[in-house]
């Protein structure tokens, strides 16, 4: 792992704007910086631009204007061939999970480790451990099509955290699970954060946010970060 010293910025946005095609700006003048090792909630009403902001953070999109610096790299000048190496340092939990349908739960979660060349013996030890921790011990061999929404969500979370990324971005990661599992998943994020991962969790769930005191919170309203406290 190459976690950075706590306190340095892992990502910063400076007057960032984003529009899709010729549409209106969905993000406007977004400026903030996240110190390495911090834990933030990203809140805001539906359509405010949370997923779009996360897309910029994992290099799924480039800003229409302004500057995004990630891992000390200005993404406007980062070459296409350099992106996969940067993305491997980011764990992402997508709202729509994006699991590979032809792979089992175990193989989906193992994927980031296999890409990195981790030994199969280690994979066979750690992946079942993590899947058991998220309550899926009896689903290791299950294909995504046979899993419920909440089970798929947990597989997606396990895949995002297994490699202890430098940055974890999670879009509504507790949207499909009950309260008890939501708390368990939040504790998993906290443990990862203690190990040095910077975490951003986008959520509508105000009661979840109020139970954890991670600050500053990024609040988006009409495409603008209106509160950072
Ligand atoms: N691929 C796209 N093409 C065009 N417009 C888009 C696209 N994705 C999002 N938008 C628009 O950008 C705005 C912000 O959407 P976004 O999904 O980022 O909001 P959100 O805060 O994540 O919403 P939710 O909480 O409902 O997921 C919306 O007006 C949406 O219609």
Automatic annotation (TrEMBL):
Matching Pfam families: ABC_tran (PF00005)
Membrane topology, from the record: Peripheral membrane protein
ABC transporter domain span: 11-225
Location of the protein in the cell: Cell inner membrane; Cell membrane
Molecular function as annotated in GO: ATP binding; ATP hydrolysis activity; transmembrane transporter activity
Biological process per Gene Ontology, one example term: cell division
SMART domains: AAA (SM00382)
Subunit structure: Homodimer. Forms a membrane-associated complex with FtsX.
Protein name, as recorded: Cell division ATP-binding protein FtsE
Gene name in the database record: ftsE
């Amino acid at each position: 792992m190459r976690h950075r010293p706590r306190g340095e910025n892992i990502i910063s946005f400076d007057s960032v704007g984003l529009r899709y095609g010729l549409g209106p700006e969905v993000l406007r003048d977004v400026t903030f910086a996240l110190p390495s090792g911090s834990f933030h909630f990203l809140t805001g009403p539906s359509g405010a631009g949370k997923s779009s902001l996360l897309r910029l953070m994992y290099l799924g999109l480039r800003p229409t204007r302004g500057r995004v610096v990630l891992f000390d790299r200005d993404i406007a000048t980062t070459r296409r061939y350099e992106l996969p190496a940067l993305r491997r340092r980011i764990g992402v939990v997508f709202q729509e999970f994006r699991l590979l349908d032809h792979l089992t739960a175990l193989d989906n979660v193992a994927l980031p480790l296999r890409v990195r060349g981790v030994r199969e013996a280690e994979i066979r030890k750690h992946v079942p451990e993590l899947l058991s921790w998220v309550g899926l011990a009896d689903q290791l061999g299950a294909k995504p099509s046979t899993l419920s929404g909440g089970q798929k969500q947990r597989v997606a979370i396990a895949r995002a955290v297994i490699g202890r990324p430098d940055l974890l971005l999670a879009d509504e990661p507790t949207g499909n699970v009950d309260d008890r599992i939501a708390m368990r998943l939040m504790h998993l994020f906290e443990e990862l954060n203690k190990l040095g991962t910077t975490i951003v969790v986008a959520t509508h769930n105000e009661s979840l946010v109020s139970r954890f005191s991670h600050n500053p919170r990024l609040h988006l309203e009409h495409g603008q970060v209106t509160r950072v406290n």
